[in-house]
Amino acid sequence: MKPLKEIPLTDIFKYEDAFNLFHKEPIAFANDGTRSNGLTIGWGGIGVLWNKHVCTIYIHEVRFSRTIFDKAKYYSVCLLPEEYKEAIKYYGTASGRNEDKIANGGLKVVEDLAPYAEESRLVLICKKIGQSKFDPNQVDDGVKDWYAKSGVHTIYQGEIVKVLGR
Ligand SMILES: Cc1cc2nc3c(=O)[nH]c(=O)nc-3n(C[C@H](O)[C@H](O)[C@H](O)COP(=O)(O)O)c2cc1C
């Protein structure tokens, strides 16, 4: 496998289109200064905000990751090849609250501005520039059910400061 190398931001969509990037279930990683953790994410978007190129992700309040991402200065969004579906499943079901997912997840996670998986085919390193919680009273009735039980998602806006590809 060719090593990851820095690629231009404009090459992102040569790897995956904007919708598929999140349909393919990337793993997002962050380090809060003490420890790293990651979780599979299916919600996210790439766009322009505050005149910067951003990758926005959404992490529910009940996730252990939320405590890490709240404090982290950077996060990564890692798109893995199909053969890593077991790792994607693991990161989407196990919790960092109970175990060390970096040690047990079967991926080689390296520390950069944010941790990222070496096996990825595309890595977006994002500098967190905003975070806020959804207001469940300001969402359409059709999506209110998402917030009928405990907690809401926090929205993290990250400026894409580095992109790695092969
Ligand atoms: C395909 C898939 C997509 C997911 N997307 C999200 C997401 O966008 N936001 C979120 O908060 N949780 C999402 N989850 C759930 C978390 O990945 C899961 O609860 C994980 O175990 C949380 O780990 P943690 O407790 O270490 O934070 C998704 C899970 C899967 C399997």
Architecture overview:
There is one protein chain. The chain is an alpha+beta fold. The protein has a single domain (5-165), classed as Electron Transport, Fmn-binding Protein, Chain A (Pnp Oxidase, Chain A), CATH 2.30.110. Helices cover 16% and strands 39% of the residues. The chain is built from five helices and ten strands; from the N terminus they run E-H-H-E-E-E-E-H-E-H-H-E-E-E-E. The protein has helices spanning 12-15, 20-23, 64-71, 85-91, 101-104, and strands at residues 5-6, 27-31, 36-40, 44-49, 52-60, 74-79, 109-111, 115-117, 122-133, 153-165. The strands form two sheets. Strands 1, 2, 3, 4, 5, 6, 9 and 10 form an eight-stranded antiparallel β-sheet that branches. Strands 7-8 form a two-stranded antiparallel ribbon. The mean pLDDT is 96. It binds flavin mononucleotide. Flavin mononucleotide (FMN) is lined by residues 25, 37, 39-43, 58-60, 63-65, 92-97, 101.
